[in-house]
Design a protein that fits this description.
mainly alpha; two-stranded antiparallel sheet; 2 strands; elongated
Length: 1243
C-alpha cells in the first residue's frame, strides 16, 4: 500500500500486497493450511507467479535502513525488505507443508529457482528473522530425499555454523547442526572452495560454548573423522586450546577424542590414532603442568582401556614410549611416565598366551616397584600412588608374593623416608585407597600398625594424611583403629595439635579460631586437630545424653585438655542441637558440683567444676557463632546467636535462679568457692542473650562499676577475674558506662602524681582494670573503638604529670631543700613504673590499632592547597605519630637538664665518696654528696628508663605500619621527585633524632645504675649494673633480628662490650648475650673483624683496624674469656679465627654444598684471571675454592670491603662518614615487614 501511494510500478504494488496478505495469513494462522491444501499442479503456477512479482527483489540484498530524518520522515521505505520477508515466509511454509519426498522427490522448477536465489542472499540479509525462514526451507530440502538437494548444502551448513559461532549461541544451535552433520560428509573436501567451511568448523572446535553444549563433543568427534585430510587441522586446533581451556572444555575434548577413535574408519582411523600417539608423547615429554593437561586429554581412552580394541591401541602407542621413559635421566620424564602407568596398568596385548601374559605382568610390576626407590622425590611419590591404586584395583588379579613385596616396600622404605615428608604422606594416603577394596582388609590389618609412628611425625602434612587414614579405617569392619593407634595417643595428639594451632593463630594475629579456606586446604595443626575431632567425636556423640555426660566426666578426669580441643573443633562435624543439649546437661551437673563445694566451704576451686564450666562455654560459644546462609542472597546477613528452635530448650535448662547465688557481689559473698568459680561461670554464660538473663547482666555491670571505682583495693579481684568480667561485659554491651569511672580515677591520680602526692586508694584498682582491658584482645578492640578520646587524654595527662614531678623533684634536690631523704618523683614514686608501662602501651595501641574517624569527603586538601586521596588523608589521623610524641616527652623528661643536673651532682658525690673510703655508707644511711642527698627512689628512676626504652624499641619495630612512607610516595607522584626526596630526608632526620634519644636513655640508665650502686648499694644482692647490662643486651638482641645494617649493630655491640667490668654483668647473662649475637651475625664480615679485634686472628694478634684502642686490652678480660668459651659453638668464626681448631672439612660425598665448593669452568677461568691479576699487582687472590667456605664462595666484595653475598645483611653501597650512624633504622623501606606481620603483640 505504501508503494502504491508513492507511485511505484505495478510489480511493487503487487509485492506489497503479497507481503501484506502473507502477514495477514500468518496472523490468521491459515497460511500453512492453504499450502497443505494446494494440489501438486498448482505449485508451479504459484512459484512462477511469485518469481514474476518479486524476482527483482531477490537479485540483490535489501539496503540497510538509514535513520529517519525530518525531511524524509514520511518517505516510503522498507519495500525491498518486506518483499524478501514475504517470499522467505512463503518458501519456509511451502517446504514444510507442501513438499513430501516420498510422494514426489522432484522440486517444482520455479520453487527451486527461488530457493537458489534466496540461498545466494542468505548470509547478506541483515534481518535475522528472514534468514531463519530461508534456512528453515533449505534445511527441509537438504534433509529430504529430493532431487538436486546437494545444491543447497552450502547455504544450510554455513548458516547453522554461523549460528553456533554467534556470541549468544545456545546448545540448541549446536544440536540443530548435529542433526544435519551427515551433510558435511557429502561435501567435496578436496575442492579449494571448502577452505572457508574448514575455517568456520575449526572456530567451532575452538569455541568453549560449542564444546560444552550437549552435542558439542559429538560434533568435535565428527570433525575429527569427517575427512582424513581435515583430522590434522582439527588436532592442531585442539592442541592450541588445551593449555588454557577450563576443565569442562577439556573433558569435552577428551570425550570427543575417544568417540572419534570409536567411530573412525579407514584413513580417518589412522589419522586419529596418530593424534593419540602425539598426545601420548606430549604427556610424557612436557613439563608437569602441560603433561597434566595432556593426561586429562587421554582420560576417556584410559577409562575404557579394558575394551579389547582400545587395549591394543594403548599397547601400540605406549609400547615404544612408556617403558623407555621410566629409565631416562630426566626426573620429570620419569614422573610423567609413572603417572601414565598409574592409569594404564596393566598394558598387556590381547594376542599373548598365558605364559607370555604372566611374564609381561611380572616385568611391569618390577618396573612399578622400582619407582618406589627412585632418586627423585616426585617420582617416588607418584610411584606410591600408582602402586596403591594398582593394588586397590587388581588385588585379586596380582600374585600374593608380588602384593607382599610391594606392601613391604611401602611400609619399610617409603613410610620411613626421612628426606621427604610428602612421600611419607603419600604412603598414608595410598593405604587409604587400598582399604577401599574390602578384600585387602585382612592383610592391611597387619600392615598398618607398624606405621603408627606417622601420628607423631614432625610434618603436619604427614600427620594429616595419617589421621585421614585412621578415619578410613574407622569405617572398615575388619580393622580397628585401636589396633593401629592407642586411644590415649590420639587424645594426647589432639591436645598437642590444638595447642600448636593456637600458637600459630597468635603468631599470625588471627583473632578467630576459624581458619580461612585457603589455609584449610594446606596441612596445618588446626587441620590435623579438626580431623582428629572428626575421628573421636562419634565415640562421644553417638551415645545417649547420660552416656555423653559420663564420658565427658571421664575425659575431664584423665584428658581435660583433649576434651576442650575436641569440643572446640566440632563445627561441621556434630549438629548444633547435639552440642547445645550436651552443654545444658553439663551446666546442670557443674552447678550441682559447685553447690556441693560451696556448701562444704572449700577454699580451693575444684578442677572438675572449672573444667566443666569451661567446656560449657566452649560448646555454647561454638553454637552461637555467626552462620552464613546456605543460599547466597542479596542483602542476606549471617545469623548470630543460638538457633531459634534451641533457645527455649537452653533457657529452660539454664535458669538464673540456679546460678545467681554463685555470682553475688563481693560484699554479699558467703564462701570462697563461689568467688573463685565466678570467672568460669561468666565464661560459660557470656555466649547467651543478656535480655534472657536480666539479673545476671545487671550484676555484671554492677561488679564492673565497683572494679572501675577501685572498691576493695587491688587485691580483691585478680587479673583472670577482671578479664572474665570485662569479656562478658563486652559481649553483652555493658562496658561503656562502667569504664568511664576508671578514666576519671586515672585522671585524678595523674593530677596528684604530677603534684608529687600519693594517689588515692582507688588508683590501683582502676589501673588494674585498664591493664586487664588492654591485655585481652576482644576487650582491647572494644575499648579502642569507643574510648579513643579518653585514652588520649589519660596518656597526655600522665606524660605532663611525669615531666612536672621529675622537674620539680630535681629542682628541690639541687637546692638541697628538705631532710636527708629526697624523692625525685614524690611520695607516690612507687606507682610510676606501672603507670608508665600502661601509658606507653596505650599510646602504641592508639596509634597502630585505633581507627581514625572517617573523612567526610573523598578528597581532603593539603596544607599547600592540593588534594590527597581519602586513604592518604585518613593516614593523617590525629593518632599518627602519637606514640613517638609521647615517648619523646618522656625521654626529654628523663634526659633533660634538670635530671642530668641531679645525675651529674650525684656522680660527683659518688666520685668523692669513692676517693674517701670512710665516707661510704650502706643503703640505710646515705650521706649528702656535694650538697645533695642521694634520692631514695633511684630504683624507680631506673625502672622508668627501662619502661621507656622498651616502648621505644617496640615503636621502632612497629614503624613500618606508619603511613608516612606512603604519603611521601603519594607526594612524590603529585608534586615531583624533589618534594618526595625532601620528605624522605625529613623522615631520616626524624629517625636520627629519635635514635639519639634512645642512646641517651641507654647511657642514662647505665649512669643511674652506677650512681645507685655507689650511693645506695643493695648489700648481698647483685649490683644494679648487672641488671642494666642484661637489659641493654636484650634490647640489642631485638635490634639484631630487625633489618638494621650490620655496621650499626656492631657499633652498639662494641658499646655494650666496653661496659663489661669485673662485677657486671653476671656470667650467665654475659654468655647468653654473646651466644645470641654471635649465632645471629657470625657470617657477617664486619662481625668477624670485630671478634678478631677481641680475641685475635689466626696468628693470635688483634686486627688494628677493627679493635678498640689498645687492641684486645680495650675490653675486660672477662669478656675475652667469655668470647673464647662461646667461640667453638660458632662454625664460621672458628674457621676464620681458629682454623687449626676448627672442624675438619667433610668429604665431598657428605658435603651438601659440594656443588658450591666445586667451581664451574667459567668460574674457574675467572678465578685464574683474578689470580693472575693479583700476582701482577702484588696482592693475594680474593677468593679460592680451597680456602674460602662454601657460604662465601659466590660472594663479591665492594670497595668498602662489604660482602654482597646472600647471607650479608649489610647495605650494598658504602656510606659516607657524615651519614648518621643509625639512619637506616628509620628508613622504613629497609625495615623487615615480617616482624610486624608475624602478629607479635606490641604489649
Amino acid at each position: 500500500a505504501d508503494a502504491a501511494e508513492a507511485g511505484e510500478d505495478a510489480a511493487a504494488m503487487a509485492a506489497a500486497e503479497a507481503a501484506a496478505a502473507a502477514v495477514a495469513a500468518v496472523e490468521a494462522n491459515k497460511l500453512h493450511e492453504h499450502m497443505a491444501a494446494m494440489r501438486p499442479e498448482q505449485h508451479e503456477e504459484l512459484w512462477k507467479r511469485i518469481l514474476d512479482i518479486a524476482g527483482e527483489y531477490m537479485k540483490t540484498p535489501p539496503p540497510p535502513e538509514a535513520p529517519p530524518t525530518e525531511e524524509a520522515a514520511d518517505a516510503p521505505d522498507g519495500t525491498h525488505a518486506r518483499a524478501l520477508q514475504a517470499v522467505a515466509l512463503l518458501a519456509a511454509t511451502f517446504a514444510v507443508a507442501a513438499l513430501d519426498a516420498s510422494k514426489n522427490p522432484a522440486l517444482p522448477g520455479s520453487f527451486a529457482e527461488v530457493l537458489l536465489m534466496l540461498q545466494e542472499l542468505l548470509l547478506s540479509i541483515p534481518d535475522g528473522g528472514v534468514q531463519a525462514l530461508i534456512a528453515q526451507g533449505l534445511e527441509k530440502v537438504c534433509t529430504g530425499a529430493f532431487e538436486n538437494r546437494e545444491d543447497y548444502y552450502g547455504g544450510c551448513l554455513m548458516y547453522l555454523i554461523g549460528k553456533c559461532l554467534a556470541p549468544k549461541a545456545t546448545s540448541g544451535d549446536v544440536t540443530r547442526l548435529f542433526r544435519v552433520r551427515h551433510l558435511l560428509a557429502e561435501l567435496d573436501w578436496e575442492h579449494e572452495s571448502i577452505e572457508s567451511l574448514k575455517l568456520q568448523l575449526m572456530r567451532c572446535v575452538a569455541s568453549p560454548t560449542f564444546v560444552r553444549s550437549t552435542h558439542g563433543s559429538d560434533m568435535v568427534a565428527f570433525c575429527f573423522t569427517v575427512h582424513p585430510g581435515f583430522t590434522a587441522e582439527v588436532h592442531g586446533t585442539v592442541k592450541n586450546q588445551i593449555l588454557n581451556c577450563r576443565p569442562a572444555v577439556l573433558k569435552g575434548y577428551s570425550t570427543a577424542l575417544f568417540k572419534a577413535w570409536k567411530s573412525a574408519e579407514g584413513g580417518a582411523r589412522i589419522q586419529v590414532e596418530q593424534c593419540v600417539q602425539d598426545w601420548t608423547m606430549l604427556a610424557v615429554r612436557t613439563a608437569r603442568k602441560t603433561a597434566d593437561r595432556m593426561r586429562l586429554m587421554l582420560e576417556e581412552l584410559h577409562r575404557h582401556r579394558h575394551e579389547d580394541r582400545l587395549n591394543d591401541l594403548l599397547c601400540q602407542v605406549y609400547g615404544p614410549v612408556l617403558w623407555r621413559s621410566l629409565k631416562v635421566a630426566h626426573w620429570q620424564v620419569r614422573e610423567n611416565a609413572t603417572r601414565l602407568l598409574k592409569y594404564t596398568f596393566p598394558l598387556i596385548p590381547n594376542d599373548l598366551g598365558n605364559a607370555e601374559r604372566e611374564q609381561e605382568l611380572m616385568r611391569q610390576l618390577r618396573m612399578l616397584r622400582e619407582t618406589l626407590v627412585d632418586p627423585a622425590e616426585p617420582v617416588r611419590r607418584v610411584g606410591i600412588e600408582a602402586v596403591c591404586i594398582t593394588l586397590k584395583n587388581y588385588w585379586d588379579y596380582m600374585p600374593p608374593a608380588q602384593i607382599a613385596e610391594l606392601l613391604t616396600d611401602l611400609r619399610d622404605k617409603c613410610a620411613k623416608d626421612r628426606r621427604a615428608p610428602m612421600v611419607r604422606a603419600a604412603v598414608a594416603q595410598g593405604f587409604g585407597w587400598i582399604l577401599q577394596n574390602p578384600i585387602s582388609h585382612p592383610t592391611m590389618g597387619s600392615v598398618l600398625p607398624p606405621i603408627a609412628d606417622l601420628l607423631s611425625d614432625k610434618s603436619p602434612l604427614v600427620r594429616a594424611a595419617f589421621v585421614e587414614l585412621l578415619i578410613v579405617v574407622s569405617k572398615c569392619h575388619g580393622i580397628s583403629v585401636a589396633s593401629i593407634a592407642n586411644p590415649e595417643q590420639l587424645l594426647l595428639r589432639l591436645a598437642s595439635e590444638h595447642m600448636e594451632g593456637q600458637a600459630e593463630r597468635l603468631q599470625k594475629g588471627l583473632s578467630s579460631k576459624k581458619v580461612s579456606t585457603g589455609a584449610e586446604s594446606k596441612a596445618s595443626p588446626d587441620l590435623v586437630a579438626k580431623q582428629l575431632a572428626q575421628l573421636i567425636a562419634p565415640s562421644l556423640f553417638n551415645q545417649d545424653l547420660v552416656q555423653q555426660v559420663a564420658r565427658c566426666h571421664h575425659f575431664m578426669q584423665h584428658a581435660p585438655l583433649a576434651l576442650l580441643a575436641l569440643l572446640t573443633h566440632l563445627e561441621d562435624i556434630v549438629p548444633v542441637s547435639d552440642r547445645v543439649k550436651l552443654a545444658a546437661a553439663l551446666f546442670k551437673y557443674g552447678l550441682h558440683e559447685a553447690d556441693k563445694t560451696a556448701a562444704a566451704g572449700s577454699q580451693r576451686k575444684p578442677i572438675m567444676v572449672a573444667t566443666m564450666l569451661r567446656i560449657v562455654g566452649v560448646l555454647l560459644e561454638g553454637a552461637s557463632e555467626p552462620v552464613q546462609p546456605k543460599k547466597k542472597r542479596k542483602g542476606a546477613q549471617p545469623s548470630i546467636g543460638l538457633p531459634q528452635e534451641l533457645e527455649g530448650f537452653v533457657y529452660d535448662n539454664i535458669r538464673e535462679e540456679d546460678f545467681l547465688h554463685l555470682l553475688k557481689a563481693s560484699h554479699e559473698e558467703t564462701g570462697t568457692a563461689a568467688a573463685q568459680l565466678r570467672q568460669d561461670l561468666l565464661f560459660a554464660l557470656s555466649s547467651l542473650d543478656p535480655a534472657r538473663l536480666r539479673r545476671t547482666a545487671e550484676l555484671v555491670q554492677h561488679e564492673l562499676v565497683l572494679a572501675c571505682r577501685g572498691a576493695g583495693g587491688p587485691n580483691q579481684r585478680s587479673l583472670p577475674q577482671l578479664t572474665a568480667l570485662m569479656r562478658t561485659a563486652v559481649r553483652w554491651d555493658r562496658m561503656a558506662g562502667a569504664i568511664e569511672v576508671a578514666w576519671e580515677r586515672l585522671l585524678a591520680a595523674a593530677t596528684r602524681l604530677g603534684r608529687r602526692q600519693t594517689p588515692t586508694e582507688d588508683f590501683s584498682g582502676a589501673l588494674a582494670v585498664i591493664e586487664a582491658a588492654f591485655r585481652d584482645p576482644d576487650v582491647r578492640g572494644a575499648v579502642l573503638r569507643t574510648e579513643t578520646a579518653q585514652i588520649k587524654q589519660v596518656v597526655e595527662s600522665f606524660c605532663k604529670a611525669f615531666s612536672a614531678a621529675l622537674s620539680k623533684g630535681a629542682a628541690e634536690a639541687l637546692r638541697g631543700a628538705g631532710a636527708a631523704e629526697v624523692r625525685l618523683l614524690g611520695s607516690g614514686a612507687e606507682r610510676w613504673p606501672r603507670a608508665l608501662g600502661l601509658v606507653v602501651r596505650q599510646a602504641l595501641h592508639l596509634e597502630h590499632r585505633a581507627h581514625a574517624p572517617p573523612a567526610p569527603e573523598p578528597l581532603i586538601e593539603d596544607a599547600d592547597g592540593g588534594s590527597a586521596p581519602a586513604a592518604v588523608a585518613s593516614a593523617r589521623s590525629p593518632f599518627t605519630g602519637f606514640s613517638l610524641s609521647v615517648l619523646g616527652q618522656l625521654a626529654a623528661a628523663l634526659t633533660g637538664a634538670p635530671a642530668l643536673g641531679v645525675l651529674e651532682a650525684l656522680e660527683a658525690g659518688a666520685a668523692a665518696a669513692a676517693s674517701q673510703p670512710s665516707m661510704r655508707r650502706t643503703s640505710k644511711s646515705a650521706p649528702p654528696c656535694a650538697g645533695i642527698a642521694a634520692p631514695c627512689d633511684m630504683d624507680v628512676v631506673l625502672r622508668a628508663h627501662e619502661r621507656v626504652l622498651e616502648a621505644m624499641n617496640a615503636a621502632n619495630n612497629l614503624s613500618v605500619l606508619r603511613p608516612l612512607r606512603n604519603h611521601v610516595a603519594a607526594s612524590k607522584d603529585r608534586e615531583g621527585v624533589e618534594d618526595g626526596a625532601a620528605g624522605g630526608t625529613e623522615a631520616t632526620e626524624a629517625g636520627s633524632d629519635y635514635l639519639m634519644k634512645v642512646r641517651a636513655l641507654g647511657s642514662g640508665l647505665w649512669r643511674w645504675a652506677s650512681v645507685a650502686d655507689a650511693l645506695r648499694p643493695r648489700g648481698d644482692s647483685p649490683p644494679r649494673l648487672c641488671d642494666a647490662w642484661a637489659f641493654l643486651g636484650r634490647m640489642l638482641q631485638t635490634m639484631s633480628h630487625a633489618d638494621v645494617p650490620t655496621i650499626d649493630i656492631i657499633a652498639e655491640v662494641r658499646g655494650l662490650f666496653v661496659r663489661v667490668t669485673a662485677e657486671a654483668p653476671g656470667a650467665e647473662d654475659l654468655k647468653r648475650v654473646i651466644q645470641a649475637l654471635f649465632s645471629r651475625l657470625e657470617y657477617e664480615p664486619q662481625m668477624v673483624e670485630f671478634v678478631r679485634g677481641i680475641v685475635g686472628g689466626p696468628e693470635g694478634t688483634a686486627s688494628s683496624s677493627s679493635a678498640a684502642p689498645g687492641g684486645a686490652a680495650g675490653f675486660h678480660p672477662r669478656l675475652v674469656q667469655a668470647v673464647d668459651e662461646v667461640l667453638p659453638a660458632c662454625r664460621n668464626l672458628m674457621a676464620k679465627l681458629r682454623p687449626q681448631a676448627a672442624e675438619p672439612p667433610r668429604s665431598p660425598g657428605h658435603d651438601k654444598r659440594r656443588i658450591l665448593a666445586s667451581p664451574t669452568p667459567q668460574k674457574m677461568s675467572r678465578m685464574h684471571n683474578d689470580s693472575a691479576g693479583a700476582a701482577a699487582g702484588g696482592r693475594r687472590p680474593a677468593m679460592g675454592a680451597d680456602t674460602e667456605s662454601a657460604a662465601e664462595s659466590d660472594g663479591h666484595e665492594s670497595a668498602g670491603g662489604r660482602s654482597f653475598s646472600a647471607r650479608s645483611r649489610s647495605p650494598p653501597q658504602p656510606r659516607s662518614s657524615s651519614t648518621s650512624l643509625f639512619q637506616h633504622v628509620f628508613d622504613r623501606a629497609s625495615i623487615d615487614r615480617s616482624y610486624i606481620e608475624s602478629g607479635v603483640d606490641i604489649d
